[in-house]
Amino acid sequence: MKPEKRWTLKPADEETVNRLYEALNIQPAICRILALRGIKDYEGAKLFFRPELSHLHNPFLMKGMQKAVERISEAIEWHERIMVYGDYDVDGTTSVALLYSFLKKNYTGELSYYIPHRYREGYGISKQGIDFAHGNGYTLLITLDCGIKSVEMITYAQSLGIDVIVCDHHLPDAHIPPAYSILNPKQSDCKYPYKELSGCGIGFKLASALAIHWKLPMESVYVYLDLVATSIAADIVPIDGENRILAYYGIKRINESPCLAISTLKELGGVTKALSISDLVFVIGPRVNAAGRMDDARKAVEFFIETDPEKIPTLASALHSDNDDRKEVDKSTTDEALAIMQEDENMRQRKSTVLFRKHWHKGVVGIVASRLIDHYYRPTILLTSANGKATGSARSVSGFNIYEAIHECRDLLDNYGGHFYAAGITLKEDRVDEFITRFEQIVAATITADQQIPEIEIDAEIPLSLVKPSLNNILKQFEPFGPANMRPVFISRQLYDYQGMSNIVKEQHLRIVAHQKNGSVIEGIGFGLGDKYELVRNGPFDMVYNLEDNEYNGNIKLQVKVIDVRNSETRKQVQ
């Protein structure tokens, strides 16, 4: 049987829960979930359940916005050459597609876009990109989803007479680049009310400010909300505050009038129902990301900006093919990495995982690091060889700051960057062994016992009698789900197998038909939980789950998606 996970019932402020119950007159469990999402009163709940585009903040509240708008307007007036420059991931390519398409509709002069090659140029503003801009007479460079750390390259661009406007959402260092204007709400002196926009979200705010300045209808910007929602989903930014509004209306546009690119990818992905944030993460995002991982991310931008229905299938097919290649390389690398772990008892006993193989594809090492964490729950780094150096990606577990652990090894590294849960590093190949030893020492000394056990955070405890379509209909109004607003997780205790109907499906999945002594019965499926069958059959058991609709042959039935089960503890019985 798999090791037990930690179950944590999130603490909610009971005074807030009671206040919401009095104001809304809905189930206390729903009020509890709202309180956990920072909603304190009726007005807060109204804004949450009924987001409005009119509640978006004025883009000119962002530091540097007025200056950026005036510089772009000046460039258009004087027919300067403008280049939109972005990162090679989903957030970067959607950002470039949004701003390029918006400017193209409002500028007849020379306008182009540039995406650095992941392997030849790397992340951020490259010298090759600046030299290309200079050599072709571009005098204004607008960066999206990158640039806030590119002090040296922006200084270089400035020396060549190129003005740079930075649109970035990554955390600035103490020393910021000498750009003409910087749009980043995370600057310490930026008073913009919402700090967690995606890179594409900041591009959207710039386009909104330009629309206001040029007296264009806001629909000229809202038409790109499908791209913004795609970036929010793929970049895993919090879906609260302004991001919730953007994601809500972006999903609405995707399902009612999407751009040609997204509707084509939806069809290629075989999705026939309405798209959700989850579909953007698992269907749309990987196909867009695959271009940069396996080949050239310019293909993704070209795809997003294409409006000819006859050309779009060929472009979509190229992305689809890249994604198929990515999946194949992903699987073979994961299988090899797991085999390495399984064959080395000493490695399995460590508190961290660092693996290095020269032949691994740089485009998948981050994905594979995440997959290894599913099997060996601990901070993980996968390295491969590029340009004569070891380079790769790091992924962490809940609560452990992998960036700080890497920072402690900085004297061994040529380059590193990232944040709490993910990072990238580059070092000389002859220092890899020393790095593995040092990193393990640091992790072993700082990681806590709890951080070594996967955690399931639970929103509310409810009896099965509350699991009804009426409850699920309210939960659907919590969408779109994502970080800061995850799909609610419930726990019900003291359950029993109903009339021996629970069983194992396809040798590894657990179909549960559960009941409580009050007579309530619910059906559910627990993927990969087949090893818990005996526990369920012998009962009583506690169950952690989400609610979901199961659609089959046109019929919709409420069921639970089981996350975990364990033996009941008498002291935790539901009265």
Largest sheet: 5 strands, parallel
Helix content: 40-55%
Tell me the structural class: alpha/beta
- Low-pLDDT stretches are 570-575
Share in β-strands: 15-25%
Annotation, overall tally of beta strands: 19
Q: Number of helical runs?
A: 21
Radius of gyration: 25 Å
Strand order of the largest sheet: 3-2-4-5-6
Q: Mean pLDDT, nearest integer? A: 92
Shape: globular
Summary, kept brief:
This protein has helices spanning 14-24, 28-36, 42-49, 65-77, 90-106, 127-135, 151-159, 199-213, 219-222, 225-234, 241-256, 260-268, 277-294, 298-305, 312-343, 345-348, 365-375, 402-407, 432-446, 469-476, 533-538; strands spanning 6-9, 81-86, 111-114, 138-144, 163-167, 181-183, 353-356, 380-386, 389-395, 415-418, 422-428, 455-458, 460-461, 490-497, 503-505, 509-515, 521-526, 541-552, 555-567. It has 575 residues and is of the alpha/beta class. A five-stranded parallel beta sheet has the order 3-2-4-5-6, with helices on both faces. Strands 7-8-9-11-10 form a five-stranded mixed beta sheet. Strands 14-16-17-19-18 form a five-stranded mixed barrel.
Description of the structure:
With 575 residues, the chain is of the alpha/beta class. Helix content is 41%, strand content 20%. The chain has 21 helices and 19 strands. The strands form four sheets. It has a five-stranded parallel sheet, with helices on both faces. Strand 16 (509-515) and strand 17 (521-526) form a beta hairpin. Helix 14 (298-305) packs antiparallel against helix 15 (312-343) and helix 15 (312-343) crosses helix 17 (365-375). The two termini are 30 Å apart.
